Amino acid sequence: MTPAEARVDLSAIRDNVALLGERSPGAETMAVVKADGYGHGLVASATASLEGGATRLGTAYLREALALRAAGITAPILSWIIPPGEPLDEAIVHDVELSTGAGWLLDAIAEAAGRTGRVARVHLKADTGISRGGASVADWPALVDRAMARQAEGTIEVVGLWSHFACADIPGHPAIETQLSVFDEALAIAEKAGAGGSHVIRHMANSAALLTLPQARYDMVRPGLAVFGLSPIPEMGDFGLRPAMTLVARIAMAKRVPAGTGVSYGHTYFTEHETTLGLVPLGYADGILRHATNVAEVLAGGRRRRVAGRVCMDQFVIDVGDDPLAEGDEVILFGDGSLGEPTVQEWADSLGTITHEIVTRIGSRVPRVYR
Q1: Over the chain, what is the mean pLDDT?
Q2: From the candidates 34, 38, 218, 284, which is the catalytic residue?
Q3: Is 34 a catalytic residue?
Q4: What is the spatial distance between Cα 275 and Cα 280, in angstroms, rounded to a whole number?
Q5: Is 255 one of the annotated active-site residues of the chain?
């Protein structure tokens, strides 16, 4: 028995990916499993996604892609954040597809391919308006020409053209259509330069775009958050997705205290009556945001309880009044809501953040238990 655990329902991940595939007919599905599978576990999430119908996987960093290869996963993998000094040779040898939106990185990939004697598979990224990675509109033609020259020498093969939305989770935002128009222009430039053909995958849609923008699906969609059952546009509902993670802990100590007792650091909470306090062995070192202090709710003893007092590094306290509570009793911080517990969305809303942050912050001290 562990003090706390994150229970991950792999069937939910499989079902979510299958549902997303049904919502994007004619397009491949790349399941994005970066950040340790959004906190759900990298390898287990990737495996379940492939079982659910994903044909490709996406990671932010090369070390994530290489970890998937070390686990025996052979599906195509794309990695897209590649600062200087990354192990390009190793990635190319292990058939990791690489993204670039910069000439220096394109050259570095080509040189690494030359050293390995392999052809690097490359996706060219266009910055269509998010102003992060990718070549700007002004730099895109030169990047494409440079890539075609490297392809002609036999060191790289352009296998993808892509971009990323800034505001797809804000229905009707004018940037959506603007970015689609810019991406279409970028595709036309690339195709005119010879970087077209049926083998070149065009992709732009994240979870929100997949679910609400049919015109953005192109040849492949890249769901991330939705794979794990969390809605990318909460105000539009859950889209039929099932949350995969339930975070639970077991009461480490229960004790009666008198009225007027100050609880936890700073005494930001005082008991109103004689009551029972329960110590929950999770804290900000485990990803429970300190902002949950006196705000977030959990399910204990069949009822919702608010965090009582400041969240500490390893623990926080709940006040259950006169209800029974004993050491070892289970507390559910969040889950799918079927037992009356808070959902990840409720935690995010109460803390003024997004569900991505809630699940990806759950730390390594909390074991993932797969069901």
Answers
A1: 98
A2: 34
A3: yes
A4: 16
A5: no
